[in-house]
Amino acid sequence: MLRLFLGLSLLAAAILKILGIAKITEPYVFGFSLSVFFMSLVGYIDDPLKEIQNKKSFSLLLKNILLLLSILSFTLVPLIYNIGAIQDLVKIIDNDTFLLFGIAFSFLTLFSGDRNLKQLKKLLESEKQSAVNVKVKEILEKVDSIREHKKS
């Protein structure tokens, strides 16, 4: 749900920018780019199959840390943009780099999601077939029981 709210917030910011109501300065672009990068990493490591099988996994911890970094980048980096460490980071890696990495991981996430969807469909189909087999077996046992009862 948090990702939905962040996405809607960015859409609102984009609309305000288009309308000339909002001005997005370099500190905000850097914070947003960094946030998108971390959020894309969260999406990339988010594997629902693993979470179902192992709720307390390292990937869940890493996902939460990256989510926190994303939110901090979104909210705090623009406010502390003039601090030396942030300026040093900006000199080494500019906004566009984080944005490109974020977009790249977004596409990798889409690919991974497609792969996970196929796995979930196979798992669902296997579960359905297993349930059908159990019911067929139960019905056959009842039929055999009725036949045995009629013989006696």
Distinct helical segment count: 6
Strand pairing plus helix content: what structural class?
mainly alpha
Alpha-carbon distance between the two ends: 63 Å
How many strands, what sense, and barrel or not for the largest sheet?
none
Order of helices and strands: HHHHHH
Silhouette: elongated
Rounded mean pLDDT score: 82
Description:
Helix content is 84%, strand content 0%. With 152 residues, the protein is mostly helical. The chain has one domain (2-127). The radius of gyration is 25 Å and the shape is elongated.
List the helices and strands and how they pair.
Blueprint: H1 2-18, H2 26-45, H3 48-53, H4 58-75, H5 84-92, H6 95-151
Quickly list its features.
152 residues, mainly alpha
Summarize the structure.
The chain has 152 residues and is an all-alpha fold. Helix content is 84%, strand content 0%.
